[in-house]
Amino acid sequence: MNITEKTQYKDNLIDQIFISLFSRKMAQAVKKRPKYKGYDGFVDLSQQIMKGRTAQQQQELVEVVLKSLVPSPALYLIRTLFSPTKWICESNAWFATVLFEWLVGKSEIQEVEIININKQIIRQKSGVKIKKCRYLEESGCVGMCINMCKMPTQKFFTESFGIPLTMTPNFEDLSCEMVFGQNPPPLETEEASRHPCLQTYCPTAVNSLQPCPKIYD
Q: What are phi and psi of 162, to 5 degrees?
């Protein structure tokens, strides 16, 4: 796969509905309108959320948006009645490949190793490999990937749904691995927290080997 070649997407009606729904929720949260239509507008809203906000504030705002998409009683019931069993984690992985293609592009199920509550290593098909993340490619920003996607999504599934999720972006080939059933480690222990700007994609990239300045700003 040539990662420098821009991926072309043709959003169908269902994709457009999801993009519109998420964009509307984000616009309400940030109290601004997107400058563009479709997915470009969705990314533009993400960039507007970043401006003037710390990394923590960005994550918290996205978390509010995610929670607004699912009624609180439903979140409570899911968290209370469904423990993160193998079947639940595998089902979430399957739904992720179906429901999130408009957001992240093509993905596929993977078998992964999980340490269960009894400290046993088990294998289950609760991993999702995103081949080339649309959101990362369009935004071109390491900090946006971490604070607008990885961190709030992990927290939303782990705490609000009660289904642990770890997301590991690969900034070299723009892929990403999602593992349902695996508790996310602290960000500072991950390679993602130390990755520099994406020179090929980011229009405001800092030419340095230091971590992307937007990760913690």
A: 75, 20
Q: Kindly report, residue by residue over 138-171, the tens digit of the pLDDT.
A: 999 999 999 999 999 999 999 999 999 999 999 9
Q: How far apart are CA 209 and CA 202, in angstroms?
A: 14
Query: Backbone dihedral region of 31: left (phi > 0), alpha (psi from -120 to 50 degrees) or beta?
Result: left
How big is the CA angle at 174 (ends 204 and 88), to the nearest 5 degrees? Answer: 125
For residues 46 and 139, give the distance between their C-alpha atoms in angstroms, rounded to a whole number: 9
- Kindly state the tokens that stand for 80: 């209370």
pTM equals 0.91
Hunting for tokens 């971490």 — which residue is that? 146
In this structure, which amino acid lies at residue 125?
A: K
Query: Where are the chain's structural domains?
Result: 13-194
Radius of gyration of the chain measured on its C-alpha atoms: 17
